[in-house]
Amino acid sequence: MGAGAKAAWSWVTHSPRLAINEIVIRTGPRVPEQEVRMLSDLVVGDNILGFRLSECVEAIEIHPWVKRASVMRELPDRVVIEVKEREPVAMIAIGSVYYVDRDGEIFKKVLLGEDMDCPVLTGITLQEVVEDKEAVDSLVNLGLEIIGLAASSRILPAEEISEVHLDRAYGATLVRTSDAMRIRFGEGGFEEKWTLLERTLVELSEEAKKVYELDLNYEGRVTLRLREGYRVAAAKEESSLPGGL
Questions:
Q1: For 244, left (φ over 0), alpha (ψ -120 to 50), or beta?
Q2: What is the pLDDT of residues 137-156, one digit of tens each?
Q3: Which of these, 104, 168, 215, 230, is most buried using a 10 Å CB contact count?
Q4: Each residue of 220-229: pLDDT tens digit?
């Protein structure tokens, strides 16, 4: 009986009557259909039961831009492959520059000519990534939380962030693209600090160009350092800025 079952299964998995007639690939712009097809190692004419779904999925997920893949048989002759691409929300400079997705995973080296329109996380070394991944993940998540707040902000949108510097002792410091203003967030309470930051930037208005650094780490108060040669106008000095600037 065992030999008969084995022979029957061999016939089923090699029979031309169960050949794949159509391979449907649903993917995005970063993972071309032909690359998915090549990685899957499936071709029209293969037996639809002659391959392992798990092995096919694993092969496709080798692609650096693939976050998740699924492969489904639709009997009698159709295979459907769906690819979910990674979405980079930041880059990280650790010797070379790599993409980081919204889950904090460092997944691909940035190559010349590729999209680099993301804030850059700095302050972490490659040695730290190798030796203390848990601490690095914690720091990266600080940076991504700030970038996430900027993504829904009209006052300081994500495209206005050039860098988020991460430090074990001092936490996160944002650098604004337009004027290189430094904004110190520290290690927590980012939602409240972000609200305070937005109110402060609105209140400062054109005076913001005189500010070198804003520090949000004084229990609801904002302290600032002016750029060399500048002072805040008297009207601003006499006003009560958010949180008591």
A1: left
A2: 999 999 999 999 999 999 99
A3: 104
A4: 789 999 998 8
